[in-house]
Specification:
The chain is of the alpha+beta class and about 290 residues long. The protein has three domains: about 5-75 and about 125-150, Ribosomal Protein S5, domain 2, CATH 3.30.230; about 80-110, no CATH class; about 150-285, no CATH class. It has helices spanning about 45-55, 80-95, 105-110, 125-195, 200-215, 220-235, 240-265, 265-285; strands at about 5-15, 20-25, 30-35, 60-70, 80, 115-120. A hairpin with a 3-residue loop joins β1 and β2 (about 20-25). The longest helix is centred in the middle third of the chain and has 68 residues, at about 125-195. The radius of gyration is 34 Å and the shape is elongated.
């Protein structure tokens, strides 16, 4: 089963006092990386929120935002007039000492300072936390469904590219047989050009076989075929195996590279280049697989 690391989930609910919206996004990342933007009075629950997200999402860069809009003014913060007056008096004194005449921006400066706003509500109720938990779970489910749908298109692409690599592997066979004949003729002609007319044919055959054994690519072809089959088996497994597929793709790459180094034939090397191109596209896709 293939799941993308890219996903999006959104959930919201209303109470008589407020409207709560939970928005969750995820992108690809080697490990779980969580960024949280929540109201300050939810901070006491941040560890629980992070724990739930990391458990359910497993991997990826996740951005969670919880927005709370008050429907009535019961829980809205109020101005801390004492702090504001104190800030204003101090800033006026400093402005006078520095001969600063333009004091139009003082209030905007003051309102960015600590303790200018106050609220009587300092904690989150159990009822509200239960609602937040439900909304978070719903957002995670939506994000997971998004990942599954995105994973289907990735899986289709991976299957097509593995199939192409296997088809290129079949195309090597006729060139491989011709290659052996050409190598034998090349060695024989080289010996004749050197004036060695009286060649011990038995010894010649032994040397040719020894040379051809070093260039034999049958083992690489068999291993490459097995790796491709194992790749598809892993794709079809119930669990998400992005990292495992990455390791298998590395093994596929090793066999393709060895084929290229042993090819000793321009036509086979061209096929190897096409295999490498498909493998690079597979690796790019795997960067976003859970």
């Amino acid at each position: 089963m293939i799941k993308s690391m890219t996903g999006y989930g959104l959930s919201f609910a209303e109470t008589p006092e407020k409207r709560i919206t939970v928005e969750l996004r995820s992108l690809n990342s080697r490990q779980i990386d969580i960024n949280i933007k929540i109201p300050w009075y939810y901070k006491e629950k941040e560890i629980e929120i992070r724990s739930k997200i990391s458990k359910d999402l497993v991997r990826g860069k996740a951005d969670l935002a919880i927005f709370v809009d008050a429907i009535d003014d019961q829980n809205l913060p109020s101005l801390n007039k004492t702090a504001i007056k104190s800030y204003y008096k101090q800033l006026i004194d400093v402005a006078g000492e520095l001969y600063i005449e333009n004091r139009n921006e003082l209030m905007s400066i003051i309102m960015r300072l600590p303790e200018t706003l106050k609220t009587d509500k300092q904690t989150i109720s159990e009822e509200e936390w239960g609602l937040i938990t439900e909304l978070l779970e719903k957002a995670i489910r939506e994000l997971d469904e998004f990942r599954v749908e995105e994973g289907k298109s990735i899986e289709k692409d991976l299957r097509e590219r593995i199939s192409l690599i296997e088809s290129y592997l079949d195309e090597i066979l006729p060139y491989e047989e011709e290659r052996i004949i050409k190598i034998r003729e090349k060695i024989n002609n080289s010996l004749k050009q050197l004036g060695n007319e009286n060649i011990d044919q038995n010894r010649f055959e032994q040397e040719v076989l020894y040379y051809l054994e070093k260039l034999d690519i049958n083992e690489e072809k068999v291993r490459l075929k097995k790796h491709c089959e194992y790749f598809i088996q892993t794709v079809e497994s119930e669990n998400t195996n992005g990292k495992k597929l990455g390791f298998i793709s590395q093994e596929i790459g090793r066999e393709i590279n060895t084929l290229g180094s042993k090819a000793n034939d321009v036509r086979i090397q061209k096929i190897v280049v096409m295999m490498k191109d498909e493998l690079e596209k597979i690796k790019e896709q795997l960067l976003n697989v859970l």
